[in-house]
Write a structure and sequence with these properties.
The complex is a heterotrimer of chains A (about 100), B (about 350) and C (about 170). Chain A has about 100 residues and is an all-alpha fold. Helix content of chain A is about 80%, strand content about 0%. In chain C, α1 packs antiparallel against α2 and α2 runs antiparallel to α3. With about 170 residues, chain C is mainly alpha-helical. At the A-C interface, β1, α1, α2 and α3 of A face α1, α2, α3, α4 and β1 of C.
Chain lengths: ~100, ~350, ~170
């Protein structure tokens, strides 16, 4: 038997690592991946609480989060490709002009 | 069943399945060379052993003894990881496939499947309830093997090959997944044993209740998508030798190349297994003869159905030319995907009106 | 006992993968470590009795979304990350902020650990309900409207991706 709090702590650690990757990394694709990491951390909390309450609604929410993440990945990567075509760089510090 | 018996049974099953599978892969290559030879009015391998039967062995020895080269300027870690990933994912996906009912040896009941322990009172003994999803998940991880192989090789042919491969596999995975939904609606389960069991018996006394008959369109979509997933002719653009030398495995030699080669044939076998289980009634077939024969016949029927699919694979390779890249994408997105969705709509409508048969 | 060992092993792999994501300079290494995190998270979902979500996690996240990431990295031929200064305030305030936030969450959770109780393998199965059937019932009955809304979202996302990524000449 594993205490539920361990799962929540793991989720918190993953979320924190996601935030720090988001802040430290300068490559736009890696920044995008750290968002996915944070979503995954939240999903872990959802599934853990679904287990705690013995309700499947938490798992259904994970399902929705995945759908949103998939939609976000498709649009986000399309934006990254468009930015790369215009700027020839993936570094977020070089994409700071708010115009083409 | 105590832990010790479970472990011994599991190890025996794994060793047996791995041995049969790898032998099967070796002799599929022999069969392919023989049949392609006959289709092209040649003999195929004849020198090593009778009918060239020892040719796979000679090939294996050659693969092991060749120099294992690592070219300059490759991303070394990923270059070595990629073929291992491809081969191991191809092997893992076999683990959940059932190839027969349970058998009882020495008073211990065990399922003819690597995973799963028969529990008393279980409707489908020894199965995992998401078996099909596990196969889909594991094979979708196998894409990384091909994508990373091309990227880490630091070669333009390899990179182009792996770009094509990953685009093709993502595109056709949708059609592949959706083509299975029709069968899942009819069977009402992800468990492979439940799907096979729901195909037992016959309609009108003689026609077997295989899902190929109500789901003919789904089977067609599945077959096309599966050929694209395994990168076989007519969808073998990732390794088109006339354009890309050898595609993603251009820079690989010796055993690393052999791993990709084996992974491709293992994936063909997995795909044939799924087709057999979902559309052709798995191990169901006529049973006759003494009890020992009756217990072995299901496994034989299963193997025979897989053999038919492997033969069709080779037959198509000897018959069809390769698609152009835009034709490939248009075929996947504009033809197979709408067809699969239409099949799901019609099937679910019929099931909703008449209920489960 | 076995449960704890499995949790610690896969949890450690998760954290190691996430740390590797931060530490690596090349985006493809970061992407692969994220795949490792997602794979071990799927196994942790299995420990929590969510087998359908675990399978979908592998198929959708590791098998589709991350392949898309790797594909884009290969397509754009992204090299190792440049070392630019970036936003110094984000790092100076963000670093301690993240540490404090994590500390508070961990402290709160561990203080109330008794109330949360524990997780038993198979505790979700005992309800006599198949995981997949249960999720399907919820998804197509109780959550039908959100489900339809997400399908519209997906449709919009597909169109948006096509419009954004298409070259200007071909539009």
């Amino acid at each position: 038997m594993v205490p539920l709090s361990w799962y929540l702590v793991l989720s918190a650690i993953l979320f924190a690592l996601g935030i720090s990757a988001f802040l430290i990394k300068r490559n736009i694709i890696t920044i995008f991946m750290s968002i996915e990491l944070m979503l995954n951390a939240v999903n872990l909390s959802f599934v853990a609480f679904a287990n705690h309450w013995h309700k499947l609604s938490g798992q259904v929410f994970v399902f929705f989060v995945m759908v949103v993440a998939a939609a976000e990945a498709a649009v986000g990567l399309a934006i990254i490709i468009a930015v790369f075509r215009a700027r020839e760089t993936l570094n977020v510090d070089r994409v700071n002009l708010l115009k083409l | 069943m105590d832990t010790q018996t479970f472990l011994i049974a599991a190890i025996i099953k794994i060793a047996l399945v791995a041995f049969l599978l790898l032998t099967g892969v070796a002799y599929t290559t022999w069969l392919e060379r023989k049949i392609i030879g006959r289709i092209q009015n040649r003999w195929g391998p004849t020198r090593v052993g009778p009918f060239g039967l020892l040719q796979p062995l000679a090939d294996g020895i050659k693969f092991i003894l060749k120099e294992d080269m690592v070219p300059d300027n490759v991303h070394k870690g990923l270059y070595i990881l990629a073929p291992m990933l491809a081969l191991s994912m191809a092997l893992i996906s076999i683990a959940v496939i059932p190839f027969g009912e349970t058998i009882t040896v020495n008073g211990t009941q065990t399922a003819l499947q690597i995973t799963g322990v028969p529990q008393p009172g279980q409707p489908h003994p020894g199965d995992i309830n998401i078996g099909l999803l596990i196969i889909l998940g594991v094979t979708s991880i196998g894409v990384y093997g091909i994508a990373l192989a091309g990227w880490s090789s630091n070669s333009k042919y390899a990179l182009l090959g792996s770009l094509r491969a990953s685009a093709q596999m993502i595109s056709y995975e949708l059609a592949l997944g959706l083509s299975l939904v029709g069968v899942l609606i009819l069977a009402g389960s992800f468990s492979l044993r439940a799907i096979v069991d729901s195909q037992a018996g016959a309609w009108f006394w003689h026609i077997p209740r295989w899902y190929i008959f109500p789901q003919l369109i789904a089977f067609f979509v599945y077959l096309m998508a599966a050929y694209a997933e395994t990168n076989r002719i007519p969808f073998d653009l990732p390794e088109a030798e006339t354009e890309l030398v050898a595609g993603y495995h251009t820079e690989y030699s010796a055993m690393k190349f052999a791993m990709f080669f084996m992974a491709e044939y293992l994936n063909m076998i997995t795909v044939s297994c799924i087709a057999t289980l979902l559309f052709f009634g798995g191990w169901h077939g006529p049973l006759f003869g003494p009890p020992l024969l009756q217990s072995l016949l299901p496994v034989f029927w299963f193997a025979a159905k897989i053999f038919v699919f492997m033969f069709v694979y080779i037959w198509i390779r000897g018959t069809l030319p390769r698609f152009r890249y835009d034709q490939l994408m248009a075929f996947g997105w504009k033809f197979l995907l709408p067809l699969a969705i239409a099949n799901i709509i019609v099937t679910s409508f019929i099931v909703a009106v008449w209920g489960h048969s | 006992m076995l449960h704890q060992v499995l949790f610690i092993v896969f949890g450690a792999i998760c954290v190691a993968g996430a740390i590797n994501l931060v530490a690596q300079r090349h985006p493809i290494n970061s992407a692969l470590s994220l795949v490792v995190v997602m794979g071990s998270l799927a196994l942790i979902y299995l420990l929590l009795g969510a087998e359908f979500v675990a399978a979908v996690q592998v198929i959708v996240y590791a098998g589709a979304i991350m392949v898309l990431f790797v594909f884009v990295i290969m397509l754009l031929n992204a090299g190792a990350e440049e070392r630019t200064q970036g936003s110094r305030i984000a790092v100076l305030i963000g670093g301690p902020g993240v540490a404090v936030l994590t500390g508070v969450i961990v402290w709160t959770v561990m203080r109330n650990s008794q109330q949360f109780g524990g997780v038993l393998i198979g505790s979700m199965v005992e309800q006599g309900q198949d995981n997949t059937h249960g999720i399907a019932n919820l998804l197509f009955k109780d959550f039908l409207l959100p489900f339809e809304v997400t399908s519209v979202l997906i449709l919009i996302a597909i169109m948006g991706a096509v419009v954004l990524a298409a070259r200007k000449e071909s539009v």
